[in-house]
């Protein structure tokens, strides 16, 4: 008999959000065995979990979710009670450069996990759960008004969002066709510690610090709804334990910012922290060629999660941004590790050659 009450596979646990989910679960539930399944792509980094990786309920398996044989071996070895699925290719700009990588991991990888979850669940129909972590980008792009609700029709417009939408549809199909117990959440843009500096906020922090140009796509008028990553992890905890099977929950911070306004706030926070004259970093802003198919606005209506499960965000944005900037300033070694090698090649393709 296992000493643990439950065994949970968390895929993509070495990435940004996954590492926060693992940290929360491993610490909060010492009786759960948490198995991190991660292929350690450019975005996966075991340093993200250094503070918890010696805890007795944490396990790591280096594996690609598309490799059915290897993943089957893990289902056999651990007899998972639940899967929290975060592993994905996650960056829109990379999906424009290499869409097939997104179809592979996000669609095929999800299908492999669903198929195995179904096969093991069908053996005894015991109390299992497949929790799929998805994005608000599946709903497409909003105009100046309105919000995405759980009933908004899917309208993905980038290879990234189309691959995530496909994976959501597969998850729903496994629920409707086979009865596999599933739950899905669709979250807005996350920010916080350990985010790979290809995404807006850490890229800008890094470039402000090193006094490199700040590449603002188009006119900087696109709007994103930002959520503190630890609030996302708390929402996943709540939905995992209290969400209704077969349902979808939107997660968001009611915290919309135009990119250009957000970058001005970041410049101001960093000018103060770095002892630079107020406004000096804004001189680094450069308006560059827009992203192809750039979605104008995302904004989540998270009232269902709030009304039914009592979740709400915990942190004001400016406080969260300060904490995020502090983390990056104090963890330059981490930044140096992840921005060496392959990152330089991506940066050149994305920002220098264009
Ligand atoms: P990330 O890119 O930081 O991490 C992805 C992780 O998945 C990495 O550790 C990587 O090594 C792993 N991975 C990639 N391909 C794999 C494969 N084939 N097999 C096994 N592991 C693989 O991503 P993130 O920002 O932490 O996002 C995690 C999840 O949350 C994704 O599913 C994403 O779509 C979703 N999401 C992200 C955001 C956001 O703002 N970042 C918002 C909403 C939803
Ligand atoms: P990003 O962090 O890539 O998240 P997503 O595209 O998934 O929302 O980008 C957030 C916003 O910032 C988006 O409107 C694109 C914009 N952006 C820039 O203007 N410059 C950049 O260098 C990056 C990476 C993003």
Would you give an account of this structure?
- The chain is of the alpha/beta class and 354 residues long.
- The protein folds into 2 domains: 6-191 and 226-251, NAD(P)-binding Rossmann-like Domain (Rossmann fold, 3-Layer(aba) Sandwich); 200-223 and 256-292 and 315-343, UDP-galactose 4-epimerase, domain 1, CATH 3.90.25.
- The chain has 12 helices and 13 strands.
- The chain has a 7-stranded parallel beta sheet with strand order 3-2-1-4-5-6-11, sandwiched between helices. It has a two-stranded parallel sheet with strand order 7-10. It has a two-stranded parallel ribbon with strand order 8-13.
- Strand 1 (6-11), helix 1 and strand 2 (32-38) form a beta-alpha-beta unit.
- Helix 4 (99-124) packs parallel to helix 5, helix 6 (200-209) packs parallel to helix 8 (259-273) and helix 8 (259-273) crosses helix 10 (317-330).
- The protein is globular.
- Bound molecules: nicotinamide-adenine-dinucleotide and thymidine-5'-diphosphate (TYD).
- Thymidine-5'-diphosphate (TYD) binds next to helix 6 and strand 8.
